[in-house]
Amino acid sequence: MSQFVRLSQDHSSHDVDVIVDVSTGSPTIVYWGQALGSSAESDAIVAALSRPIVHGTVDSVAPISVVPEHGSGFTGRPGLMGRRGGGRGWAPRFATTGHTVVGQTLTVEAVDEVAELSMVTTITLAEVLAVAVTVTNIGDRRYSLDGLTVTLPLPEHASELLAFEGRWSREFHPLRREWMSGELLVENRRGRTSHEYPPLVFAGEHGFGEWDGEVFGAHVAWSGNHQVFAERLPDGRRYLQAGELLHPGEVVLEAGESYTTPDVLGVYSPEGLTPATWQFHRSVRSHDMHPSSPRPVLLNTWEAVYFDHSTAKLVALANAAADLGIERFVLDDGWFGSRRNDTQGLGDWWVSEAVYPDGLAPLIAHVTGLGMGFGIWVEPEMVNPDSDVFRAHPDWALVTDGYEPVLGRQQLVLDLANPEAYAFIEGHLDALLADHDVSYVKWDMNRDHVQGSGVGGSAGTHQQTLALYRMIDDLRSKHPTVEFESCASGGARIDHEILRRTERVWTSDCNDALERQTIQRGASMLIPPEVMGAHIGPTTSHTTGRTQSLSFRAATALFGHLGVEWNVTSLSDQDRAALRAVIEMHQAHRDLLHGGDSVRFDTDPAFCAHGVYATDRSQAIVSFAQLTSAPSQTPPPLRMPGLELDAVYEVRHLVIPYESWGAARIQPSWLRDGVRLTGRQVAFHGVQPPTLHPESAILFTLTRV
Fold it and tell me: Which of 198, 269, 412, 550 has the fewest C-beta atoms lying within 10 Å of its C-beta?
């Protein structure tokens, strides 16, 4: 007999209902979407959606449960895959044994006595829909788990998919496609979330945009390997399935042992992509580790000095940074062991006497004496073969015995699941933080896992990821005032689980503002701006060779956690004055930029339009950038939905120092005098941007009067 539980959540833009049938063993989400009203009966809703039995099939319609079962007649991709010795127990069928509801959290317990497995499913509806599943081996023989994923149903009119692709220095590029039939499978085996396939997908009704159409999204909150699967069954039903990707033999459950999936986070909006992504942002902002203080503007030394460290050079860099109003100084790679280039020294986490004969203390004292916090770069998961640690402990590398290991950047992965390796690295990092006035750690990870076997010879990525979490947690418990940044060759490890223990992610190694416009737009669909590292780089980009104006670089970086990655000792007086003014502008608007709702606007592909609205819609900052040449000489009016329709807003140009974008002799009059419009007018007829040239941007503010 069916039994239904209804969870409801109020969001600022819309309310959400989730109706769950708890009688199906693995529970079945029978409805997920816009609130249906207090008078709606769950039984009636389910009855209205009941499906007929069709010819050529079994005599029942197998539900798309959270863990769909082949053993129940589900012909799509099973949610649980595994077996015991001899291939037994491969198609389990669970029966519900009980459920509880506490607040907005539903827990359902189920068991399969034949397969000797128990299952606990947890469904929470808060800022996001969060689902996780635990499977336990209740038999006396081992159970080899090949995969356990979470499945979310979609309505049949969700006929378009939006996934993401990328590479190093080109992360989070959207890839949109029609989804009339068949499957989409995204698999990542790189040992981190990856540049190429971030664990994020959206589905929506045909033609959905930033502000219109029903949209559903899912994210795997996990920092290792993952899989995302979308299927439209022959009977028309659709679903998303997501979770950790397990290598063969990576998880084997002995008697009494359990495996729990990463949280799969779902978002829903009846009004387009932008309101859906606010739920991801609010989820990040609800984490205990999410910063509550203003995000300091930082200077990172990498593109200023690379490996050419000297105390005199870094002191001069710190002096120039402090003069610009920078609040945090981050010493990047090159300060430790024999690390004079990228081929040696990783793993030797002690201060280089050759480079810093008096240690780091004098430099740190100078930086903090200037009123800046001091940060430092580490890469604890890696080791160079040319290092003291590897020469002493080659068995600590995450490699497979009998094979020549595959190097990446002349690096191997250090097996943090090895207790001795863990204790050694954690001990040295603990000492580094205990012995120095360090307030910030940039934690990097610069290569994929390749044939990485842990202790015992089985695949090691799962245990490595858990060990990473444990090490950061251990260090945070010992040094609670130190902030951490997740970096992985740029944006190769950005997910909500790493953000439960870090205050910032490095979005991309590419500081080219043209590339960054698209990268940051894509990343904004998952993370809020205050955790999105965004730097003003050199005039000529080190990754692309493009030369861009300071105003365009500044307009791009303003909408994240602002940093500077530039040799600021070499600036002209004009650039120094302009950069100082940009930093002051960011600091003046930081509360809005880092506390509001990120918004994106649909426009011609030659342009990129986005901004931030205050949560009470009292003010906004919007950027309109021209990326390439456009078919028309004049940009189209920018329409900005989402403000209070009947409120009056004053729209004014926010001038970036030394900005240069116009070619027309006469620009729109509102640029000079401002203009007052209602939110309705802003949404439906918009504001005319000026004539721009490629790789330029204009900013403007909207203030409720």
Answer: 550
